[in-house]
Automatic annotation (TrEMBL):
Species, as recorded: Enterococcus aquimarinus
Entry similarity comment: Belongs to the asp23 family.
A Pfam family the protein falls into: Asp23
Protein name per Swiss-Prot or TrEMBL: Alkaline shock protein
Length: 141
């Protein structure tokens, strides 16, 4: 979700403006955050989920960008893997996001706020019922 329409980079080279859509920043942030170890996935909205069901990836999901006179503020809504250090992973996400946005756009973020929405446990293996009762069948023969 975006509060402003575009970001204009400071350019002193006389060749013209460089304008970056806020959606581009959201995608950079979403990808950077999801690559941090311990992040299971970004929290999606209902419309993001519908879009993904239709086969399109939504890389900016879970990212809320606010651009105003105070600067650029990011709110990230993440699902973390169960068992990780929540503060450690959150700080890594903040650092990675700030670095990646600065590297790719030369834009410095003023705030990166992490909202941990849930912890997701690892998948438990499904029991193979045939294998489970294999010994019982052998004993009955």
């Amino acid at each position: 979700m975006v509060d402003e329409t575009s970001l204009v980079l400071d350019t002193d080279h006389g060749l013209g403006e460089i304008v970056i859509a806020p959606e581009v920043i959201e995608v950079i942030i979403g990808i950077a955050a999801s690559k941090v170890d311990g992040v299971h996935r970004m929290q999606a909205s209902f419309t993001n989920n519908v879009t993904e069901l239709l086969g399109r990836s939504v890389y900016g999901k879970g990212v809320h960008l606010t651009i105003d006179e105070e600067g650029i503020k990011v709110d990230l809504y993440v699902n973390l893997k169960y068992g990780v250090s929540v503060p450690k992973v959150a700080m890594q996400v903040q650092s990675r996001v700030k670095q990646q946005v600065l590297f790719m756009t030369d834009i410095e973020l003023d705030e990166v706020n992490i909202h941990v929405v849930s912890l997701v446990p690892e998948k438990t293996e499904q029991l193979d019922l045939e294998e489970l009762f294999e010994n019982d069948e052998a004993e009955n023969e």
